[in-house]
Design a protein that fits this description.
Number of domains: 2
CATH class of the largest domain: Alpha Beta
Number of strands: 16
CATH architecture of the largest domain: 3-Layer(aba) Sandwich
Radius of gyration: 27 Å
CATH superfamily of the largest domain: HUPs
Helix content: 40-55%
Oligomer: single chain
Structural class: alpha/beta
CATH topology of the largest domain: Rossmann fold
Largest sheet: 5 strands, parallel
């Protein structure tokens, strides 16, 4: 398996540090408002990556931090006249609800910054003791001049960095130095520390959390492209300076940004779409497919028509999948040529899918393999197939579905009851057709059509599928 490493700007063979174990960290949200579909795109991409690593047999500890102490949170709380920690907790809860609604279930632990204050203080103390950080009044800054490799991830030198995204403060030794600890201001949340009451800076939260759970070095670090500088650059400097061990991260992977009408999403731009609003309009699995149809590293333009197309693809996959599920109760012995041909399709599709995902998690190619498999095996749903063959087809659909987070059962008992009832109704219709009772046959077909179930008669037999939700009759 190969991944694109932002640090080397090249595709590299994926070899975890500890054999079969993978430690994976992704920068989580700053919870000062509702999560939007840009967040969805990011966390869905890494959800699929974590799912695939587990499908490959890796033991994955997937860690996501939640920034619940930050300038943005304090500013929003002051604007609303609320306690910052209470505001953050509310939006943290909403974020987790959004992740669950999107089917993002691969995260092992969501770690809150506010629950790791002792670890943050300990790491800052280490940096001061090693003279990588200095105190000014009640604030503590990281001294970038003491870390010669600062800028190695973004490939910028300090002179270039001075021109970008720095916080001016005449008390700093260097304009690019960044805050590790901020002294308390009136109305702000604060904790006791050796430097007085205050709160952590943004960058130190992540490294204190990752070193707590992973140690000084780990395998995968993900996040959006916009975080490479200054955030990820600061993480490297802090952690490697504190531990004396490098690299902090073996593979840096970054996801592309989501745009709406050609512009990066933002409330001030009028293109802010919350996850909740998106899920009111779209099936969460259709959103997953829509985002996965573009490579995780590419910039993606959100388009309602694109989601609608993904919904149609999803419906087709579900239809073929359900056709084979319905064969479990009625399967018969397949001929040897049929069995051999079907097994060849299963093997080819699995190989194509894995080759795509092994190539830097190429979900568009993997999706094409999935769609091709559904198209190629659908004609076999009308053949006499023994249960073993049906199970092999369903197992591959389940494999695809588990990686992409689609074809997930949302009520197995109800679905099974529905399919059993439908098979009974179609059996009655089949008996009517054998007796040339076309009136009863047509009545059943038309009634099913009104319920959104399309029955198709052909020379090869009877097929059924669910209509697209937007086409459902009253």
């Amino acid at each position: 398996m190969k991944v694109y490493n932002t640090k080397s700007r090249s595709i590299e063979e994926f070899v975890p540090t500890h054999g079969n174990r993978v430690c994976m960290f992704v920068c989580g949200p700053t919870v000062y408002d509702q999560s939007h579909i840009g967040h969805a795109r990011t966390y869905l991409a890494y959800d699929i990556i974590a799912r695939y690593l587990r499908a490959k047999g890796y033991s994955v500890f997937y860690l996501v931090n939640i920034t619940d102490i930050d300038d943005k949170i304090i500013s929003k709380a002051n604007e609303l006249g609320q306690d910052p920690l209470i505001l953050a907790d509310r939006f943290r809860t909403e974020f987790l609800e959004d992740m669950q609604a999107l089917g993002i279930n691969s995260v092992s632990l969501y770690a809150r910054a506010s629950e790791h204050i002792p670890e943050i203080i300990a790491q800052i103390s280490t940096l001061i003791n090693k003279q990588f950080a200095y105190q000014v009044d009640g604030d503590v800054f990281f001294d970038v001049s003491k870390f010669p490799n600062y800028g190695k991830l973004s490939r910028q030198d300090i002179d270039q960095l001075i021109m970008h995204r720095v916080d001016p403060d005449p008390r700093k030794r260097n304009v690019v130095d960044f805050a590790l600890w901020k002294s308390q201001k009136p109305g702000e949340p604060a904790w006791d520390s050796p430097w007085g009451r205050g709160r952590p800076g943004w960058h130190i939260e992540d490294t204190a959390i990752t070193t707590t759970y992973f140690g000084a070095s780990y395998d995968l670090h993900g996040g959006g492209l916009d975080l490479i500088f200054p955030h990820h650059e600061a993480e490297i400097a802090q952690a490697e300076a504190a531990s004396g061990i490098e690299p902090l991260v073996k593979y840096w992977i970054h996801s592309g940004l989501l745009t709406v009408r050609g512009t990066r999403m933002g409330k001030s731009m009028g293109n802010f779409i919350t996850i909740k609003d998106a899920l009111r309009k779209h099936d969460e699995e259709a959103l997953r497919l829509s985002f996965a149809s573009s490579h995780y590293r590419s910039q993606l333009e959100f388009d309602e028509n694109h989601v609608a197309q993904a919904d149609q693809i999803l419906e087709r996959l579900r239809t073929v999948y359900n056709q084979f599920r319905s064969l479990l109760a009625t399967s018969k012995q397949a001929s040897e040529p049929t069995a051999n041909s079907l097994r060849k399709l299963i093997s080819q599709a699995k190989t194509q899918f894995d080759e795509a995902m092994d190539d830097d998690f190429n979900t568009p190619r993997a999706l094409a393999a999935m769609i091709g498999f559904a198209k190629n095996v659908e004609p076999y749903a009308i053949h006499d197939l023994n249960r073993e063959l049906v199970v092999e087809v369903l197992n591959l659909f389940s494999y695809f579905g588990n990686v992409f987070g689609i074809l997930q059962s949302k009520g197995t008992a109800i679905e099974n009851a529905f399919e059993s009832l439908l098979r009974m109704v179609l059996s009655i219709r089949d008996e009517a057709r054998k007796k040339a009772d076309w009136e009863t046959s047509d009545m059943i077909r038309n009634s099913l059509h009104q319920l959104g179930i399309i029955v198709e008669d052909s020379a090869d037999g009877v097929r059924w599928h669910l209509k697209h939700a937007g086409e459902r009759s009253a």
